[in-house]
Write a structure and sequence with these properties.
The structure is a single chain. The chain has twelve helices and six strands. By secondary structure, the chain is an alpha/beta fold. The strands form two sheets. Strands 4-3-5-6 form a four-stranded parallel beta sheet, with helices on both faces. A two-stranded antiparallel sheet has the order 1-2. A hairpin with a 2-residue loop joins strand 1 and strand 2. Helix 9 packs across helix 10. The longest helix is centred in the C-terminal third of the chain and has 16 residues. The structure holds adenosine-3'-5'-diphosphate. Adenosine-3'-5'-diphosphate (A3P) binds next to helix 2, helix 5 and helix 11.
Length: 290
């Protein structure tokens, strides 16, 4: 079954939500880069909002100490979904963007190793299950109530973000072209402090012990879930159905086991496991493994 044109369109082999346009995506090739720019690149449901929040906390003292109440979306806007109000060229430096773009559609200058990219991956069974629940909550994502059907769409890459394996393997196999730090959701979950330190080192930022503690505490699942900005609670009702979920849902490793049957997991493995094993990533599939 093909995805509904009400939700998705394809541009250069990649599925985008209809909130953007092919013309705008195409213009990003020439998007002017500042050397201090930071891009958070992910396949959907891999920990984007978490990483956005961490970066905002690292960079903005006013976020850390609670004196500035700026929506995450304004602070760290999407690159390919042009926000109606924010002029991306006028953001304070360092600018931080979030993107689900595949490696081959990002601004040209990134391929000249300018700016910094943080690419976050997550084990794909948790990604898929998170995506399935998200599709019920997010009105701009086509809801496929039957999980079997959703899984087939996911496995064939006919969802926003296209094929998970192509996205991840594309970025990993082109790492040499970029100034890039790879992180996994699971390592962030296992030891958030070390992950925050890794990000700081990559970006050449120094935080005091106190500041570091504050970032780690505020970026925990429990605290972010309570924070209306981190949980995107202010999104309008025509975008999300607040009765059907929230941005921060379970925030754990291995929740796929609560949705996938053994047969579904085997089908998934049959399609993807060989390719997953070829990736230079040691995925963690269960919270007890950390
Ligand atoms: P679940 O649906 O499995 O709970 P994205 O931001 O890329 O859309 O990813 C969303 C996923 O990241 C959701 O997964 C969400 O709960 C999880 N997440 C967000 N903040 C988190 C945090 N602080 N700790 C752990 N998981 C978090």
């Amino acid at each position: 079954m093909e995805p509904s044109k009400d939700y998705l369109f394809k541009y250069k082999g990649f599925y985008f939500g209809v909130e953007t346009t092919p013309e705008y995506i195409s213009s990003l090739e020439d998007f002017e880069i500042n050397d201090s720019d930071i891009f958070i690149a992910t396949y959907p449901k891999s920990g984007t909002v978490w990483t956005q929040n961490i970066l905002s906390l690292i960079i903005h003292e006013g976020h850390r100490n609670g004196t500035e109440k700026i929506e995450t979306m304004e602070r760290i806007p999407w690159l390919e979904y042009k926000p109606p109000t924010t002029d991306l060229t006028k953001l304070p430096l360092p600018r931080v963007f979030a993107t689900h773009l595949p490696y081959y559609l990002v601004p040209r200058d990134l391929r000249n190793k300018r700016a910094s990219i943080i690419y976050v991956t997550r084990n794909p069974k948790d990604v898929m299950v998170s995506y399935y629940h998200f599709s019920k909550y997010m009105k701009t994502v086509e809801e496929i109530a039957d999980f079997n059907l959703f899984m087939e769409r996911f496995l064939s890459g006919k969802v926003l973000g296209s094929s998970w394996i192509d996205h991840v393997s594309g970025w990993y196999s082109h790492a040499e072209d970029f100034n890039i730090l790879f992180l996994t959701y699971e390592e962030m979950k296992k030891d958030l402090r070390s992950a925050v330190l890794k990000i700081c080192k990559f970006l050449g930022r120094k935080l005091s012990e106190e500041e570091l503690d504050s970032v780690v505490t505020q970026a925990s699942f429990e605290n972010m879930k309570k924070d209306p900005r981190a949980n995107y609670e202010n999104l309008p009702d025509d975008v999300v159905d607040k009765h059907k979920g929230s941005f921060l849902r379970k925030g754990t490793i291995g929740d796929w086991k609560n949705t996938m049957t053994v047969a579904q997991s085997e089908r998934f493995d049959q399609v993807l496991m060989e390719k997953i094993k070829a990736l230079p990533i040691n995925f963690i599939w269960d919270i007890n493994e950390i």
